[in-house]
Each structure stands twice: as structure tokens, then as C-alpha cells.
Amino acid sequence: MIPLGYRVPMSIGEPHVEVDNSGSGCTAYDIVINSSFFEKIKNNELFREFFITVAMEGLENKYAVELSREWRMLRNRKFMGSLFDQNIRTSSKPMIQEIDSK
């Protein structure tokens, strides 16, 4: 569970078909994260595992899928397969908004 007020800056993309290393088809999901945030997690194993857990839970909640908790970090690669465009919000929405009573 994420502490209240803490946000992980990421964008979860739509599912798409890719081919894995064995030549079999698989479903892939692109997750885009802020480059500053990536610098924080890439050399901190505990923080990186926290992010992977949050990302997997985000995918499961968004697409109603159940994912295996087995994962591996790609060496010398930031992605595998094709990258697809994503809409990324550049400013955050306020958590609390005043609503006009009229």
C-alpha cells in the first residue's frame, strides 16, 4: 500500500502484442517513468522492487489481469520490442478542488 500523499510518476500504456526471446507471442505493457525518478530507483534495489510492485499492481488494477511476480531487469536496454505513443500529463491535478455551490 502506498502511503497517502506519495505518488509514483508513471504512465501505464495500452496492452500490445510482442514476440518474446523464444519466438512466442506475448502481451506487453509500456510503463513510462520520469527520468529523475528512474535515476533514483536504478541503483537502489529496495526502491526498484517497490516501484516494480506498484507498477504491477497498477497494471492489474487498470486491465483486470493477474500477473506473475517473476521479473528481471534488462541489462543495457531500457525497453524491449516497440514503443508506442502515450499521453503524459505534464502538470498534476489538485487532490482537493473547491466546487462552486451554484
From TrEMBL:
Signal peptide residues on this chain, from the entry's feature table: none
Source species, domain of life: Eukaryota
According to the entry, every stretch annotated as the PIH1 N-terminal domain falls at 4-94
InterPro entries from the xrefs? PIH1/Kintoun_subfamily, PIH1_N
Q: Which Pfam families match?
A: PIH1 (PF08190)
Role summary: Involved in the assembly of C/D box small nucleolar ribonucleoprotein (snoRNP) particles. Recruits the SWI/SNF complex to the core promoter of rRNA genes and enhances pre-rRNA transcription. Mediates interaction of TELO2 with the R2TP complex which is necessary for the stability of MTOR and SMG1. Positively regulates the assembly and activity of the mTORC1 complex.
Q: What family does the entry list? A: Belongs to the PIH1 family.
- Official protein name in the record: PIH1 N-terminal domain-containing protein
Q: Which organism is it from?
A: Staurois parvus
